[in-house]
Amino acid sequence: MVTGASSGIGAATARLLAREGFQTVLGARRLDRLQQVAAEANGVALELDVTDAGSVEQFAAAVEERYGVCDVLVNNAGLALGLSPVADTPDSDWAAMLEVNVLGLLRVTRSLLPLIRKASHGHIVNLGSIAGFEVYRGGAGYTATKHAVRAVSRTLRVELNGEPIRITEVDPGMVDTEFSLVRFRGDEQAAANVYKGLKPLTAEDVADCIGFAITRPPHVDIDEIVIRPVAQANSFTVHRTQD
Ligand code: NAP
Questions:
Q1: Does residue 239 belong to any structural domain of this protein?
Q2: Residues lining ligand 1, CB < 6 A?
Q3: Residues marked as catalytic
Q4: CATH at 220
Q5: 86 lies in a domain?
Q6: What is the domain range of residue 94?
Q7: Is 185 contained in some domain?
Q8: Which of 2, 27, 46, 182 is least surrounded, with the fewest CB atoms within 10 Å of its CB?
Q9: Distances in whole angstroms, Cα of residue 56 to Cα of each of 92, 103, 138, 203
Q10: What distance in Å separates the CA atoms of residue 1 and residue 50, rounded to the nearest whole number?
């Protein structure tokens, strides 16, 4: 199962899992986009809004009915909204990020856990970020959610200890996806500026790390993978060329 599989890292992960021989089930809100990815990933596209408890329950029920089991859950759906300081940020931006990145991830995990427990060995992969342990100006809302994802990953590892379920958190730096376009609400210039003068990671670079963790032998739990572009030393120390 891959949430947020209609674009970026989720879509690349779905394609990679299909190449590894997994039967993929993809969830996101934009069903047309999701169906395109599902066709490439030999998978099933199911509409999913992780902020809607009913939608999550329906998704889990559909998975149970079709397969009765979930071997791997990739909690990838997520977003950042805006880059304004705490003093100028509306509640609505914080609430939207918390709803998707934290509550959505928790909800999907809770709903699919009974099916993950039916797998001979299960695996939950959470998309964190370097924003889960670093901060930057204008990032309070988003970094708070990714710090929370880190807490959830570590909590799950304790709660599920003794069961054959692995928890991996993958923490990327800058990845060139639709992420910045969403953050800047469709402003293409602002989104392009984020990646100007450097070679960012691609969605495939991150999917590659997810694939590595998933394909280790069942007793090997890759706890965390941090991956950044070589030009990015931390959230705000980024080397850019002039051209
Ligand atoms: P992206 O291209 O914008 O993809 C985000 C995905 O999340 C989309 O498929 C979107 O699908 C889905 N999504 C958003 N809200 C949703 C909701 N309410 N219910 C279900 N799906 C929802 O961005 P990305 O870079 O691939 O981001 C994937 C993950 O990586 C996120 O968790 C992000 O925080 C993390 N990350 C990204 C970067 C980066 O620089 N790009 C760095 C570190 C971590 P729909 O709109 O169709 O629902």
A1: no
A2: 3-10, 28-30, 33, 48-51, 76-79, 100, 104, 127, 129, 172, 174-175, 177-179, 182, 203
A3: 142
A4: 3.40.50.720
A5: yes
A6: 2-227
A7: yes
A8: 182
A9: 22, 11, 31, 25
A10: 13
Report pLDDT digits (tens) over 48-98.
999 999 999 999 999 999 999 999 999 999 999 999 999 999 999 999 999
The residue whose C-alpha atom lies closest to atom 12 belonging to ligand 1 is 4
Q: What's the number of domains the chain is made of?
A: 1
Q: Which of 203, 197, 185 is nearest to 80 (CA)?
A: 185
Query: Tell me, what's the pLDDT at 68?
Result: 97
Q: Is residue 240 part of a domain?
A: no
How far, rounded to the nearest angstrom, does the alpha carbon of residue 23 sit from its chain's CA centroid?
19
Residue 242, pLDDT score: 82
What pairing do the DSSP bridges indicate for beta strands 232-234 and 237-238?
antiparallel
φ/ψ (deg, to 5) at 225: -130, 125
Q: Which two tokens stand for residue 124?
A: 């939950």
